[in-house]
Inverse folding.
């Protein structure tokens, strides 16, 4: 799990090759311990990184390996497989296929507060749905409550939701956009995810540019430029 966590960190930093090395090490030790679930998850995480790299053929090979493990070892990874398949279809441009897969996951996790929010928001992103800010606010408050009570299982759900919330509000030039972006910046600053902080400053610069505020645009473009990193 330690190597898996290191891989997750590098994946969130968009350091793909380093993430893969950590996931490979996680798989190695999971295999030695006969931790079948962790073996499968390590392979799925590698598939996800290969999708991020645009290497769909390799990602498909990893997914097939997971399906084989599931078949012969009796471990159920079907929902996680479906989530990775949805990501792959969306990035390849098969919007409807991705939405169908996510709809299945929404049904499965309708009673799971955290996962329900995540997959509903993922569908809104994939389908480019018109969002209702009051619904977004309610979901955000639920996640904040889960985090405050130490019941949030996956911090990446919070990361996804905070950034999407900021992006949707900024795209619509809503007056709440600035606060939403700054909330996302605060979150990613706590996680020390420089690349995601930079994404937020880019979003803030675009927001002010669209509003015709050249001074704010220039400042936040400068902040984003100062956070450039090498992707490896």
């Amino acid at each position: 799990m330690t190597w898996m966590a290191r891989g997750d960190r590098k994946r969130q930093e968009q350091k793909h090759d380093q993430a893969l090395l950590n996931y490979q090490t996680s798989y190695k030790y999971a295999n030695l311990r006969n931790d079948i679930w962790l073996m499968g998850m390590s392979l799925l995480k590698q598939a996800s990184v290969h999708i991020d790299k645009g290497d769909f053929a390799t990602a498909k090979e990893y997914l097939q390996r997971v399906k084989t493990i599931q078949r012969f070892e009796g471990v159920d990874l079907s929902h996680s497989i479906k989530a990775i398949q949805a990501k792959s279809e969306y990035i390849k441009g098969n919007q409807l296929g991705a939405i169908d897969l996510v709809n299945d996951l929404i049904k499965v996790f309708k009673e799971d507060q955290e996962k329900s929010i995540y997959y509903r928001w993922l569908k809104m992103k994939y389908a480019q749905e018109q969002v209702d800010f009051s619904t977004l606010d309610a979901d955000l408050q639920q996640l904040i409550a889960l985090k405050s009570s130490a019941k949030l299982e996956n911090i990446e759900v919070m990361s996804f939701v905070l950034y999407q919330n900021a992006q949707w509000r900024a795209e619509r030039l809503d007056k709440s956009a600035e606060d939403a972006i700054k909330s996302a910046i605060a979150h990613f600053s706590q996680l020390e995810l420089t690349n995601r902080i930079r994404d937020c400053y880019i979003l803030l610069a675009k927001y002010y540019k669209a509003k015709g505020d050249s001074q704010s645009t220039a400042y936040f473009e400068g902040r984003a430029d100062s956070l450039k990193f090498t992707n490896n």
Summary: The first helix runs from residue 2 to 12. The mean pLDDT is 96. The radius of gyration is 19 Å.
